[in-house]
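Structure request: Glycoside hydrolase family 1 protein, Lapidilactobacillus mulanensis.
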Amino acid sequence: MYKEQAPTGFKPDFLWGGATAANQLEGGWNLDGKGLTTAEVVKKATDRKVFSMSDVSKESIKEAIADKSDTNYPKRRGVDFYHHYKEDIALFAEMGFKSYRMSIAWPRIFPNGDDAEPNEKGLAFYDDVFDELAKYDIEPVVTLSHYEMPLHLTQKQNGWASRSTIDDFLKYTETVFKRYRDKVHYWLTFNEINSTTFGFIGSGSVDTDLSTTDEKLQLRYQALHHQFVASALAVKQGHEINSEFEIGSMLARTQTYPATPNPEDVRAAQDADQANLFYTDVQVRGEYPEYMNRFFNEHYIVLQMAPDDEQILREGKVDFLSFSYYMSTVTSNQPAGDDSVGNMTFGEKNPYLETSDWGWQIDPIGLRISLNTLWDRYRVPLFIVENGLGAVDQISEDGQIHDQYRIDYLRKHIEQMAEAVKDGVDLMGYTMWGPIDIISASTSEMSKRYGFIYVDQDDEGNGTLKRLKKDSFNWYKKVIASNGIDLN
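Returned structure:
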């Protein structure tokens, strides 16, 4: 029965903004008591289309610890937000940001992850950042764990492969929840939690010494289970500390299409979609879905669970679902097409889509499809917390950066967001990735730029770190001022 007129635009309090991660942005990797993160022992990739963040061994970690420079480890230097945060936040405010998604570097608070007391200088730094955001009425959206857990926990107990890491994490979350209870309202537990099944990037667990795929899967899904439990307990903990907190999950969403109408291909796409949504099924619905039983059985995965884990998952369901969206992919029961060759994509190339320099297929309509899929499945508020175009930006002869390609990319995605809202999707906000140029997550390059703000630094770390506005800066300012109406 018809009840009311369909929405015609974004909510008045829509959370427009941008998103970054501490390990790609902050720098100051060895200042004021901060400990090493897992991100800071991953070497810069040699091929921009190859995902290498999971190829970490005990030997490579020892090599990284012995190296006291940032030459081979660009995430150690970031773009020095640690000393430029006032300038950068002022630029975000000039664009009219309503929100800013950022992460707290866990080892800046607990350098080793299991310290008896938190590092006060680290806590004070984020106090200063939150106060600066408050000065401009910018709402922080804080990710508690964004690929930057304390390296010491990898060395001591192989990261999230150990259940002990849950207690270490909850000590950290309790500390920041209490410290910032009046400064932060929106929280995310784990960034792109599905990345944990990729290996070291999300789990902080070394598995390169395991000989079979099934052995690696056993370790990775056990680490994931520990994160599920930790997330659920953190949600409950946060609500007890401040009942007004809104705490969400975060998924790396990839829309999957069948290569043909062949039912076998359609089934393959359905299987891929379930594999992607499994994580949010647990975090939003509070239980493991039945379809994973077959996968676990076929790969000899036996999860070690505590007697009350199922109850913990039920009681620790998230308040909203956030996700990243960059691309879609194509799958077939019998793959025969061209590989999409993206460093974070798997499957065949879609002939109907354009492709970025990093092999990521550009699919704005796929975002609308995903929004409708997620809303229909979960019926909780949705939040797009990453979406953007990595490109090689050049300073032109007039000293400007004319990034019309980025404007075109974002416009097309925002148009599809608006269509999804008209479809009835409850969309909270949009924090594009990333509003200022930062170190690439997948390759540790500087050349892969996403920002509205250009940072003068090259792949080797050379440059003045001067911030320059791109053409897209004023375009996004206009988008926010019009609440998504003026996209020209």
